[in-house]
From TrEMBL:
Keywords annotated in UniProt: ATP-binding, Magnesium, Metal-binding, Nucleotide-binding, Nucleotidyltransferase, RNA repair, RNA-binding, Transferase, tRNA processing
Annotated tRNA nucleotidyltransferase/poly(A) polymerase RNA and SrmB- binding domain residues: 149-211
Family: Belongs to the tRNA nucleotidyltransferase/poly(A) polymerase family.
InterPro entries documented for this protein: CCA_bact (IPR012006), NT_sf (IPR043519), PolA_pol_head_dom (IPR002646), PolyA_RNA-bd (IPR032828), tRNA_CCA-adding_enzyme (IPR050124)
GTP-binding keyword on record: no
Keyword RNA-binding annotated: yes
Top-level taxon of origin: Bacteria
Cofactor(s) needed: Mg(2+)
BP GO annotations: RNA repair; tRNA 3'-terminal CCA addition
GO molecular function: ATP binding; CCA tRNA nucleotidyltransferase activity; metal ion binding; RNA binding
Name of this chain's protein: tRNA nucleotidyltransferase
Poly A polymerase head domain location: 3-122
Length: 367
C-alpha cells in the first residue's frame, strides 16, 4: 500500500500558491484494508475515504471507462493492481497529474512540471473528451492562473471546441455549471473564463444572456475586478454583478431557474442592471434615490444596498463622491423615526405616507 499526494495540492505547491485542500491516492489497497485502518468511506461511485484524524480525502487508485454521453456514466475499476500512472492518466490536465510520495519525491509521467514551467494548460490524453465538465474546468483554471501567464495549449483548445460542436455541453446540468462559475468567482477573473468559452463558441450556449462578448468588454471587466479586495465578504457578489452589468434586464429575469443562480446573486445582479443609470444622472434627485432605496428594501435589507454601492464604485471609481453622497443620505433616511410619526396620531396608510415624506425630506437635506 502506497500513498501519494496528488492533484491541486502538488500543482499549487509548485506554483508557490496557498494549498487549500490535500487529496491523496492510495495504490495497492482494498476497501477492507482502508476500513480496517480506521478510514471512513464516503464515496458512492468509487471508494473515497476520510483519514481518521486529519479528515483529508484518500481515494483508491482507479481507472475510468466511459459509458454513454455527458459527464456521468463512467465505469470505474479500483482494484489493488491499478498503478499510480494509470490513475494519473485519467486526470484532465498534465499540471493536475503530478503526484508526490511520502518521501517528497515527485512522480510526473506526463511532464506536468514542464507545462507548469512553460505556463501551459494541456490535456493528459484523449479521454479528456469524455467529460464535458472539463471544458469549464479548463476555462476556470485559465482564469485562476491568468495572472501567472498561463495559456491553453492549442491542441487542448481545439479538442474543447470539437466537444462543443459535438453538443457535449448540453449534457451538463445547470447546477454543475454554477459550481464552476462560483469557483471562478472565488479565485479568478470571470472575464477570462468567458474569453475561453467565446473562443470555442461555447459562451452563448452556457450563458445565453451574452449575445456578444468583445475584447474591450473583457478588458474592462478584468481591470475592474483587479481593483477589488479579494478578501472582501462581497467579492464574489460584486464580481458577479459587474459581469452581468452589460446585459439587458429582461435577459436576467428568472436566472435563478434557468441558470440555477442563487437568489441573492440573481437579485443583486438585477438591482445593478436596473438602477446603475442613477450614476449617470446629471444631478442626484431625492425622488430617484428614494425609489432606489424602496426597490432595494434598504429599510430591512441594508446588505443588499451595500452590494449595490460596492458594485457601483467598482464599476465607476470616478463616481466616488456621488456614491458616498448617496450612502450618507441613505443613512439619514434610515434614521427617520417611525415612532415619532405614530406619536403624532397618524394611523394605517397615513403612517406609510408620512414616513415616505419624512425620508424624502431627509434625502433632500443630505443631498
Amino acid at each position: 500500500m502506497q500513498v501519494y499526494l496528488v492533484g491541486g495540492a502538488v500543482r499549487d505547491e509548485l506554483l508557490n500558491r496557498p494549498i487549500i485542500d490535500e487529496d491523496y491516492v492510495v495504490v495497492g489497497a482494498t476497501i477492507e484494508q482502508m476500513l480496517s485502518l480506521g478510514y471512513t468511506q464516503v464515496g458512492k461511485d468509487f471508494p473515497v475515504f476520510l483519514h481518521p484524524k486529519s479528515k483529508a480525502e484518500y481515494a483508491l487508485a482507479r481507472t475510468e471507462r466511459k459509458q454513454g454521453q455527458g459527464y456521468g456514466g463512467f465505469i470505474c475499476d479500483f482494484s489493488p493492481d491499478i498503478t499510480l500512472e494509470q490513475d494519473l492518466y485519467r486526470r484532465d490536465l498534465t499540471v493536475n497529474a503530478i503526484a508526490k510520495n511520502e518521501n517528497g519525491q515527485l512522480v510526473d509521467p506526463f511532464n506536468g512540471q514542464k507545462d507548469i514551467a512553460n505556463r501551459i494548460l494541456r490535456h493528459v490524453g484523449p479521454a479528456f473528451s469524455e467529460d464535458p465538465l472539463r471544458i469549464l474546468r479548463v476555462a476556470r483554471f485559465a482564469a485562476r492562473y491568468h495572472y501567472l501567464g498561463f495559456t491553453i495549449a492549442p491542441e487542448t483548445r481545439q479538442l474543447m471546441a470539437e466537444m462543443v460542436r459535438q453538443g457535449e455541453l448540453a449534457t451538463l446540468t445547470k447546477e454543475r455549471v454554477w459550481m464552476e462559475v462560483e469557483k471562478c468567482l472565488s479565485d479568478g477573473c470571470i472575464a477570462i473564463f468567458c474569453d475561453v468559452l467565446e473562443q470555442i463558441d461555447a459562451l452563448e450556449l452556457v450563458f445565453p444572456m451574452f449575445k456578444t462578448w468583445t475584447s474591450s468588454q473583457s478588458n474592462s471587466l478584468t481591470e475592474k475586478v483587479s481593483q477589488l479586495q479579494k478578501d472582501s465578504p462581497n467579492f464574489k457578489l460584486v464580481q458577479f454583478c459587474l459581469w452581468l452589468a452589460p446585459c439587458q434586464l429582461e435577459d436576467l429575469q428568472n436566472i435563478e431557474q434557468t441558470l440555477k443562480v442563487p437568489n441573492t446573486y440573481a437579485q443583486c445582479a438585477r438591482d445593478f442592471c436596473h438602477y446603475q443609470s442613477l450614476l449617470r444622472e446629471e444631478t442626484l434627485c431625492a425622488e430617484s434615490v428614494l425609489k432606489l432605496l424602496n426597490a432595494l428594501d434598504v429599510w430591512r435589507r441594508p446588505a443588499r444596498f451595500e452590494v449595490f454601492c460596492q458594485t457601483a464604485l467598482a464599476h465607476a471609481p470616478d463616481q466616488l463622491a456621488r456614491i458616498t453622497k448617496v450612502r450618507n443620505s441613505t443613512q439619514q433616511a434610515i434614521e427617520v423615526d417611525v415612532q415619532s410619526i405614530i406619536a403624532q396620531g397618524y394611523k394605517g396608510a397615513q403612517i406609510k405616507e408620512q414616513l415616505s415624506q419624512a425620508r424624502l425630506k431627509a434625502l433632500e437635506n443630505a443631498l
